[in-house]
Design brief:
By secondary structure, the protein is α+β, with helices and mostly antiparallel strands. The protein has 3 domains: 23-86, no CATH class; 92-191, Sandwich (Tumour Suppressor Smad4); 218-402, no CATH class. Helix content is 28%, strand content 29%. The chain has 5 helices and 25 strands. Helix 1 (235-256) runs antiparallel to helix 2. The two termini are 43 Å apart.
Length: 426
């Protein structure tokens, strides 16, 4: 993207360091700087909290830790280091930059965002490159030192003693802890905050439920009709008797001396019989061949029609399963855009809390049978058995599992899990 627009900077409340809370209600954010980062947020409605064995409280707009008044910034109390922020020393900006070029955040003269400190951060397309030369630097709440290269993922955070950088869905968010920052307009474009939630969030609109059911049709594949070719003698066997009669007639005429004309007539009759026999043989052979071709065409037409009738409900079953049990990735996409389908199931629905864990091969709801004898080893019989087996299994369809009466385990940062449990329980 080009940096061609005029900078638009949000003029509202700029203490936006905790996405979970209303900025106007937030008073202090305290980071405990251990091996893992721990965040404590104090608000006007909840001005005190107990964490890590210490009591945090707000008295007269001053932060007290275990009764001791503390200042803003990096502080060490009872051997524990804290980073203390409020609207007085923290300000949040949103920006984008040309992703075809590198963006540097450091104290260098060539940096797109000039910051205090000795840490150099480079945003290079889908990589985040850091060179750390100071203490208390964290990536995704984990303390890091030295040189690192990370893949840029949505929601990733990078904390130094001077700023907090976060990757949001369509912007970058940086909260600075001093006024010693400069945003170079040739490198970054400051913007207004873009809402990460749909309009009217968290009010929801329940979509009409489509109660789709998988088909349970039954089908029977019938074997092809066997062409019964008419049995008959071979051509030689059919013409042999008349020919023998002709030969015997000639021999009899020579030996007996009878009337040659009568014998010639009898021989002619035998020859005529032979001619008709040969003609009938070829006629029947041609008719049998045409009949066999016709029967094969009928069998093929039946098989194509039957497979088509089975394929429609077979595909329908796959579509219903994919719609009723979206993959975890699709559920995430639905949640991100706040799609109304995420509220369509209610407690009384039989598939309430039924989710997909991935894909697998599972028996089809269709019933496919054949009338082929197991002893039939012909090619047609094997083909029908293969078709029945193929349509009896749905391949790569959602693997359904019900979460009702199941043990649910959550893994993650304590503050995030606490919020998740509150949402689940209350």
């Amino acid at each position: 993207m080009g940096i061609l627009e005029a900078n638009e900077i949000e003029t509202g409340d700029r203490f936006l360091i905790d996405n979970r809370l209303n900025p106007s209600d937030l008073i202090f954010v305290v980071y405990s700087l251990g091996d893992r980062l721990k965040k404590i947020s104090l608000t006007q409605t909840s001005p005190s909290a107990k964490c890590l064995g210490s009591l945090f409280g707000v008295v007269n707009n001053k932060l007290h830790i275990d009764g001791w008044s503390t200042e803003l910034g990096c502080q060490e109390i009872k051997g524990t280091r804290f980073l203390i922020l409020s609207r007085d020393n923290a300000r949040t900006y949103f920006f984008i930059f040309n992703t075809y070029k590198k963006l540097v955040i450091s104290s260098d003269e060539f940096a797109g965002i000039k910051s205090p400190g000795k840490t150099r951060l480079i945003l290079d397309q889908d990589r985040l490159i850091v060179d750390i030369k100071e203490a208390d630097v964290y990536y995704n709440d984990q303390k890091i030192v030295g040189h690192h290269v990370f893949s840029i993922l949505e929601g990733a955070s990078f904390l130094t003693p001077h700023y907090l950088l976060e990757k949001r869905p369509s912007q970058w968010k940086i909260t600075v802890f001093s006024d010693d920052f400069t945003f170079e307009p040739n490198h970054v474009l400051l913007q207004k905050r873009k809402s990460e939630f749909p309009k009217n969030f968290p009010d929801y609109r329940r979509s009409p439920r489509l109660n789709l059911e998988v088909p349970t049709d039954k089908f029977k594949l019938q074997g092809s009709s066997k062409h019964q070719e008419k049995k008959g003698h071979s051509l030689l066997k059919m013409i042999m008797p008349p020919l023998m009669m002709i030969g015997m007639t000639g021999v009899t005429t020579l030996l007996s001396g009878r009337d040659a004309l009568m014998m010639l007539g009898m021989g002619g009759a035998s020859l005529l019989t032979t001619t008709f026999t040969v003609s009938q043989f070829f006629t029947e052979k041609k008719a049998n061949k045409l009949s066999a071709i016709k029967e094969k065409e009928n069998d093929l037409h039946y098989l194509v029609t039957a497979v088509g009738e089975i394929t429609r409900p077979y595909k329908r079953e796959k579509e219903v399963l994919a719609f009723q049990l979206p993959s975890p990735e699709k559920l995430v996409d639905m949640t991100v855009v706040y799609q109304s389908r995420i509220y369509e199931r209610q407690v009384h629905n039989k598939d309430f809390l039924t989710v997909s864990l991935g894909t697998c091969d599972t028996p089809s709801s269709l019933t496919i049978e054949t009338d082929v004898n197991d002893k039939d080893l012909s090619h047609e019989a094997k083909h029908l058995k293969t078709l029945a087996k193929q349509f009896s299994t749905q391949r790569q369809v959602p693997t359904a599992i019900s979460l009702l009466d199941q043990t649910l385990g959550l893994i993650g940062a304590q503050d995030v899990l606490a919020t998740s449990l509150e949402n689940l329980l209350f």
